[in-house]
Specification:
This protein is mainly β and about 220 residues long. About 10% of the residues lie in helices and about 35% in strands. The strands form 4 sheets. Strands 2-1-7-8 form a 4-stranded antiparallel beta sheet, with no helix packed on it. It is globular and about 65 Å long.
């Protein structure tokens, strides 16, 4: 399956050292988190709850799950995972050695300036000689400095809205593409957006993102 279909805007992690690190498959979703610090101020008398006093804003963070796959070429998937691991390595390219900063870019959306707080890698498929060919990565980016973008709503600048479809028993990606676009060949787009490596592995009850990229939908 061609995971690099034409017309798909690729998400990327942008490193201040290496530039764009494109995602092989766009994430189906990513989560945003931010906390503020408040202090309870105890007053006199009987109260059901204390008064809260604001102390400071906390760093925002973004967590996304990525699918990495090289089964079509047979090259070690570590070539891709090493690019992510490099975002956590201390570099001497700076006056005070530190890991590089980065941000998430997807179409017109640019996240706040961040550093990698955590990276979890799980290798899930191997060649007969043990070469890893597929991996799942969970990447958490933490806000590096005060930045108005930290509270920017991603949907306000995402170029294409989307719908959500829950797969039914017996459905296939090409039938879903026909239903929403009137074009069964656009199953590749659905596979890429949802990080589906095996298009035959669609299971009932899976939640799929259906980008509104044009076409004539047959159902809503």
């Amino acid at each position: 399956m061609d995971t690099r279909a034409q017309g798909i805007t690729k998400a990327a992690i942008v490193s201040e050292i290496d530039g764009d690190i494109p995602c092989q498959f766009n994430p189906a979703s990513f989560s945003f988190s931010k906390q503020n610090s408040w202090k309870e101020v105890q007053g006199k008398g009987i109260k059901d709850a204390p008064t809260l006093r604001f102390l400071s804003g906390g760093s925002a963070s973004i967590t996304l799950d990525l699918t990495l796959d090289s089964t079509d070429t047979g090259t070690p998937i570590t070539e891709e995972t090493d690019k992510l691991l490099k975002l956590m390595k201390v570099s001497s390219d700076f006056p005070s050695p530190r890991p590089p900063s980065c941000h998430l870019k997807w179409g017109s959306y640019q996240s706040f300036k961040a550093v990698v707080k955590s990276l979890d890698l799980k290798y899930t498929y191997f060649a007969s000689d043990g070469t890893p060919l597929r991996a799942q990565a969970r990447l958490t980016l933490m806000q590096l400095e005060d930045d108005p973008k930290a509270l920017q709503n991603p949907t306000s600048s995402t170029p294409r809205p989307h719908r959500v479809h829950v797969s039914l028993p017996g459905e296939t990606l090409d039938r879903i593409a026909w239903r929403y676009y009137g074009d069964a060949s656009r199953w590749r787009e659905l596979a890429e957006v949802n990080g589906i490596v095996d298009p035959l592995g669609l299971q009932p009850g899976m939640t799929l993102v259906v980008p509104a990229t044009g076409g004539t939908p047959h159902a809503r």
